[in-house]
Design a protein that fits this description.
single chain, about 110 residues
């Protein structure tokens, strides 16, 4: 899944229906990263597999003189992406995918 970027400068034309139609549906978790600079809103949506692409996009936005995003903004957002990855890397991974004892009923054993 590739990262998707939305740049919005005015709230009046925001249509939640349009947003829902263009957002991909996935079983994977979607990470959301947002930056508000005055009237501009930068929203980055990416999954775990596209973290590197999201980081590259932050750099491209920072280097674009037509945008208000600075290298400092990109550095702060990049740090948030990396911290989230570190958190995910240290999360315990279940060794077995077994139901909890409370998930079964007494009739299951008869």
């Amino acid at each position: 899944m590739s990262s998707q970027i939305s740049r919005q400068t005015d709230h009046s034309d925001f249509d939640p229906q349009t947003c829902k139609e263009t957002a991909p549906v996935s079983d994977q978790d979607i990470n959301v990263l947002a930056l508000v600079k005055g009237e501009e809103r930068y929203v980055f949506l990416y999954d775990d597999a596209s973290r590197a692409e999201a980081l590259r996009t932050l750099g491209r936005f920072a280097s674009n003189p037509e945008l208000s995003m600075t290298w400092y903004d990109a550095a702060v957002l990049s740090q948030k992406v990396r911290k989230e990855q570190e958190h995910d890397d240290h999360s315990p991974v279940p060794r077995f995918n077994l139901p909890a004892p409370s998930d079964s009923t007494h009739e299951d054993f008869m």
